Amino acid sequence: MALVKRAQGLGVNIVLGQKVVALDTSDSSRARIFTEPVGLSGSRVEHVADLIVGADGLWSRCREFLLGQKDPPLPTGDLAYRIVLTLDQIQDPKLREMVSNPAVHFWIGPGAHVVSYSIRGGTMFNIVLLVPDDLPENVARQKGSVEEMRKLFVGWDPVLTQFLECVDTVDKWRLMHRRELQSWINDQGNLVMIGDSCHPMLPYLAQGANSSIEDGAVLGRVLGHITTRSQLPSALRLFQQLRKKRGEAIVKQTFKQRDWFHMPDGERQEQRDQVFMKYLGREVDCEFPSAWYALIDGPKHCNELTGQYRSCPEVQPWLYGYDAEKEVEAAIAKGGFDVGYESSR
Questions:
Q1: CA dist., res. 127 & res. 117, Å (int)
Q2: What pLDDT does residue 93 have?
Q3: In CATH terms, is domain 74-177 a member of 3.30.9.10?
Q4: I need a labelling partner for 10 at 20 to 30 A (CA). Which of 31, 68, 142, 258 fits?
Q5: Closest C-alpha among 189, 184, 186 to residue 230
Q6: Are 239 and 216 in contact (CB under 8 A)?
Q7: Is 18 helix (H, G, I), strand (E, B) or coil?
């Protein structure tokens, strides 16, 4: 809502209940979008703009228009069980205390991991279970079996399995990804892709929404330096220079994080666990098996990674230390739209 109110305050006209059915970007001086009402009868409406921003997510139609062909998302091999519990559903006093005192909790194991955290001021609990994908082909989401879900975590930490006993309904979501695009902008310089339409991410670093906001911040800042319309194509090229490498690096890091979290039992898993134990209570001086955090305190429960954290020195500085506005201003200072600039990643 904050973004909506800010956009409306700047004069943005937000139109709901419309779907994009066609784009015409052949005229470099103008781009046209054609929409029709969703689920209602109505005539096609033409919208004319200097620039189309394709921010239409994983199932992006704008991406298909850019490529000139169908381009469905690809399965990653994982799916997510998504659960939200209210305090009323949780009777155990210790579990209720965990929910009422907001924190993030992780459990990792062979082929799967779980992340949970409190929401709504500690009155609700969000649990996401990441497991191997067994959905039928061409099905992206469906109702899940609670019993089937519980069986996947037999033998895991009793705290986790107690939470799962509180669940009465669950959905399964296939986790999808995309091939890297050669370019996020079209040849005419009047269409640009951002967010999940060009760099969708596994949720294992919680960077999907964040990186999309970074895209928007950089694009807005770059466009803010335009003084003539003729600069638009150059401005979009600068945006791509600043964002494409970073966005795709985060995508790769999410797959690497999955590898760390989902290791089968064996020698590599034992080496990973030794790293976890080695740095309990110590500063981390290597790439840590979790780019999210490094532990100071020990695990509270078997299989659970929780406690107070320090940063992974290999990943967190570039992942969390990014300043979108500084990136743009540094690029402009080095020559604006005419000189190449290498992003800090």
A1: 7
A2: 94
A3: no
A4: 31
A5: 189
A6: no
A7: strand
Domain locations in the chain?
Answer: 74-177
At 301 the pLDDT is 42
> Distance between CA 204 and CA 291 in Å, rounded?
9
CB neighbourhood size of 296 (10 A): 15
pLDDT digits (tens, 9 = 90+) for 119-143: 999 999 999 999 999 999 889 999 9
Report the alpha-carbon distance of residue 203 to residue 208 in Å, rounded: 7
9-51 residue pLDDT tens: 999 999 888 889 999 999 888 899 999 998 777 788 999 999 9
Rounded Cα gap, residues 184 and 237, in angstroms: 9
The amino acid at 241: Q
Helix 324-333, helix 232-261: angle, nearest 10:
140
Query: From residue 326, how far is each of 60, 271, 331 by CA, in Å?
Result: 29, 39, 8
Encoded tokens for 268: 């590599």
The whole-angstrom separation of Cα 246 and Cα 243 is: 5
- Residue 19: alpha-carbon gap to chain centroid: 23
Handedness of CA 279, 281, 283, 288 (dihedral sign): positive
Measure the CA–CA gap between 109 and 111, rounded to whole angstroms: 6
Name the residue among 268, 219, 345, 314 with its Cα closest to residue 110. 268
Check pLDDT > 70 for residue 111: yes
State the angle between helix axes of 208-223 and 232-261 in degrees (0 to 180), rounded to the nearest 10.
Answer: 170
Identify the sign of the CA torsion 165, 167, 170, 175.
negative
Exposure string for 42-70, b = 16+ CB within 10 A, e = fewer: eeeeeeeeebbbbbbbbebbbbbbbeeee
Q: Which residues contact 115 (CB under 8 A, 6 or more apart)?
A: 104, 105, 106, 127, 128, 130
- Check residues 344 and 211 and name the one with the higher pLDDT: 211
The model's pLDDT over 140-169, given as tens digits with 9 standing for 90+, comes to 999 999 999 999 999 999 999 999 999 999
Q: At what angle do helices 158-165 and 93-100 cross, to 10 degrees?
A: 90
